Amino acid sequence: MWSKLESQELEAAKLGDAEAYARIVERYRNLVFAMAYSRLGNFDDAHDVAQEVFVHAFVGIGRLKDDRKLVPWLRRITINACTQLDSYYRMAPTHSDKITRERLR
Questions:
Q1: Model pTM?
Q2: Which CATH number fits domain 4-104: 1.10.1740.10, 1.20.1050.10, 2.30.30.40, 3.30.450.40?
Q3: Distance CA 103, CA 59 (A)
């Protein structure tokens, strides 16, 4: 349920109030971490993604029009960040790729 306090904090954060944003991060950090961990299965990667999500959200929070869509918005940012990390890992050369390239020289 969306409370008046949450709405006030979100509005303050949109105006640049870092303390209000910190309270939002505190409220949703476990949720964002859990979403990232469930997709990635790695504690460190999930932690990194959660940090990235909140940096991205801080930069873009002023564009959020409907306060009630904060959680779906954070979910979408989290999914996108996880997808980007997955893509990076798929494209990054593995240790065996490096050894194979060195042998071909």
A1: 0.80
A2: 1.10.1740.10
A3: 46
Q: What is the pLDDT along the chain (105 residues), one digit of tens a residue?
A: 467 888 899 999 999 999 999 999 999 999 999 999 999 999 999 999 999 999 999 999 999 988 889 999 999 999 999 999 888 777 766 655 554 444 444
Contacts 24+ apart (CB under 8 A), 61-65: 61/10, 61/13, 61/14, 61/21, 62/14, 64/10, 64/14
Would you list the domain boundaries of the chain? 4-104
